[in-house]
Write a structure and sequence with these properties.
It is a single chain. This protein is mainly beta and 185 residues long. The chain has two helices and twelve strands, in the order βββββββαβββαββ. Strands 4, 5, 6, 7, 8, 9, 10, 11 and 12 form a nine-stranded mixed beta sheet that branches. The chain has a three-stranded antiparallel beta sheet with strand order 1-2-3, with no helix packed on it. A hairpin with a 5-residue loop joins β11 and β12. It starts with 10 loop residues before the first strand and ends with a strand.
Length: 185
């Protein structure tokens, strides 16, 4: 950040009075610009014994498979965000959604809120952000072609434990850029 969104003057990175973290502070009007993590909402949507996956048509990880998920928008709940992303990415109508997992990714300042639900209809098709979509049985999941570690972890948790419990974990990135999983419960 270079300039204040309130007055247009330059900002400096410093610790404001009565704070304990560096923030961008306007050099002219003193406005403190807080930057917070993004919420990413997604869903494990099932139809009988199959799981909906989308092949990404956007970066990052173009051409890799993922669960429908994306950034939460203003004026929506986390479940509404997950259902909207399923519609945008797979033209999929989600039935009622329940929270499945909360996964913190501090190294990229994101929190994933994953839900589970049944598809309200078997009709799915690729949306603008997907090259293709598919319903996969356990033995058909393209494990080596998954886009993100949180998708791999969510699918493995679901297949091992089902949807009856809310899972918590966090991911870190080591010096070698490898992502490491830290299970809370």
């Amino acid at each position: 950040m270079n300039y204040c969104s309130q007055c247009g003057a330059p900002v400096s990175l410093k610790i404001p009075v009565d704070d304990n973290r560096e923030r961008y502070v306007c050099d002219h009007c003193g406005y403190v610009h807080y930057q917070n993590p993004n919420n990413v909402c997604g869903a494990i949507l099932t139809l009988e014994d199959r799981i909906l996956l989308c092949k990404r048509a956007i970066e990052p990880r173009y051409g890799k498979w993922t669960l429908p998920a994306g950034f939460m928008e203003n004026n929506e709940t986390v479940a509404e965000a997950a259902a909207r992303e399923a519609m945008e990415e797979a033209n999929a109508r989600a039935g009622p959604l329940t929270l499945f997992g909360i996964f913190s990714m501090p190294y990229i300042s994101q929190v994933y809120l994953m839900f589970h639900g049944e598809l309200a209809s078997p009709e799915v098709s690729a949306g603008q952000e997907s090259l293709e979509v598919g319903l996969f049985r356990r033995d058909e999941i393209p494990w080596d072609e998954l886009a993100f570690p949180v998708v791999d972890h969510s699918l493995r948790l679901y297949l091992e434990h089902g949807a009856g419990k809310v899972h918590h974990a966090w991911f870190s990135r080591g010096p070698d850029r490898q992502v490491e999983l830290h299970i809370i419960d």
